[in-house]
Structures are given as structure tokens and as C-alpha cells.
Specification:
The protein has 8 helices and 11 strands. With 242 residues, the chain is α/β, with parallel strands linked by helices. 22% of the residues are buried.
Length: 242
């Protein structure tokens, strides 16, 4: 595994940590380890060091264990946290895990650290990839929303099952005489002079035929009936089709 992985190792001055570091080195060749022995220095060290993973040792699982896990997770939710402590009752272990720890290991089983490190770093890698993908998705959605809103052609985002208007752009608002907020309270059937079944079937047929344009009649806010040309297509947004 990459030797530029940074490990924050938190323990008390009286701890014997050579077994812990030996297990870490089985996974990571020449790891960069930042040692912290003072609870008050934990948060400052996180900001300075920004570790890939945090390994927290406690001679007994006291409230500092829960507090330490929370400090790490509040700094960066993506940093895996492994807690190593003396055997504790199940309720205490659950409390530490609920605080955000990714793994809990009894001090008497240092051999489990190797697999815990591998699992934690694998999870971190997946979480980072997922977060990056989400940022791209959010960015693309924002760009599309701006494109949609400002486009000179009239555009409506419609739920194909109910006909509910999810979004409308400025051009559509100006043409029909409704505000965008008013549009969002309506269904596409309310704009048409035809019945709901005919309207929804027409839209679905247009989509099925690859966006073939259909000509129909709509009623504007002032009651005037006008001919409109519709070209329907599918937009998939976060696994939902519109």
C-alpha cells in the first residue's frame, strides 16, 4: 500500500505502542506516523497534519474515547477511526461505534489491526470517490438548472406519471402568464384543452418516438387558447426520470 499514507496515532505516554506500529507497517511500508499523547493537542494536530486515518488507543474506554472519535469526525467525516482499548462491556463498544468509530479492537488482539487498517483505507478511498462524484453531479445539476432557467425556448420539467410540473423556465412563465411558483402548483393537463389521458399519452408517445414534435393547444393564464409545438425528452436526475 502507498507509503505516503499518514497515520495519526493517539495514545497515553504510558502506552506500549510498538505492537501497534508493527501491525501498521505490515500494511503500509514506511508509514508517516504523527504521534499525539495529549488529548488537548488532538484537534490542533488534525488541522496541521490532516491524516489519512486515525488510530486511537485507550487504556480503558472512558468518555475521552467517544470525545476523541467525535473530534476526528467533526474535522473530517471521511477519516477512518480505529479505536483500540482494553476489553469493555458491549454497551461501551456500541457507544464508541455510534460516535463514528469505524472499528473497535481489544488491545489484547493487535493482530486484528492489519485487517482493520486495510478495511478502513478501502472505505476511505470509496468514500472519497463517492464524494467527488457527488460534487460533480451537484455542479452539473447547477449548470443544467441555469441553462434550463435562462434558455430562450419555453421549457417545462414534468413528472411523466402524474403530469405534475416540477420546474418551469422564464420563457415559459412569460409566454403562459404564470409565475414559476404558480407553474409548480399545476399539472401539464391543466394547460391543455384535452383530457388527462390524452395529454399524458401524447407526451409519452413523443418520448418513445425519440422526441418527435407534436402540435397541440394550450390555454394561457388569461384564458386565450394558443397552438403550441412540444418536443418531449427524458431527463434522468439522481435516478429519477422526468
Amino acid at each position: 500500500m502507498s507509503n505516503n499514507t499518514k497515520i495519526l496515532l493517539f495514545y497515553s505516554p504510558s502506552d506500549e505502542i510498538h505492537l501497534i506500529t508493527d501491525e501498521i507497517k505490515k500494511v503500509i511500508e514506511s508509514p508517516e506516523i504523527e504521534h499525539v499523547t495529549d488529548f488537548s493537542e488532538l484537534e490542533r494536530t488534525l488541522h496541521k497534519y490532516n491524516p489519512s486515518i486515525a488510530v486511537l488507543l485507550f487504556q480503558s474506554t472512558v468518555k475521552n474515547a467517544v470525545s476523541s472519535v467525535k473530534i476526528v469526525k467533526q474535522f473530517n467525516q471521511l477519516i477512518p477511526v480505529i479505536v483500540i482499548s482494553d476489553p469493555s462491556d458491549e454497551a461501551t463498544v456500541i457507544e464508541v461505534m455510534k460516535a463514528g468509530a469505524d472499528d473497535y479492537i481489544h488491545r489484547s488482539h493487535p493482530e486484528k489491526i492489519e485487517n482493520a487498517i486495510i478495511a478502513a483505507l478501502s472505505k476511505r478511498s470509496k468514500d472519497i470517490d463517492r464524494e467527488a462524484a457527488l460534487k460533480i453531479l451537484i455542479h452539473n445539476e447547477a449548470r443544467y438548472r441555469n441553462f434550463f432557467r435562462e434558455h430562450p425556448a419555453m421549457k417545462l420539467l414534468i413528472d411523466p406519471d402524474s403530469g405534475q410540473i416540477i420546474e418551469a423556465n422564464i420563457s415559459a412563465a412569460k409566454f403562459y402568464g404564470y409565475t414559476i411558483s404558480e407553474f409548480k402548483t399545476k399539472q401539464i393537463q391543466e394547460l391543455s384543452i384535452y383530457d388527462s389521458v390524452t395529454v399524458l399519452n401524447g407526451l409519452r408517445q413523443s418520448v418513445f418516438l425519440g422526441g418527435r414534435r407534436i402540435v397541440t393547444q394550450h390555454k394561457k393564464a388569461n384564458g386565450i387558447i394558443v397552438d403550441v409545438e412540444i418536443e418531449a425528452g427524458v431527463l434522468v436526475q439522481r435516478k429519477t426520470e422526468f
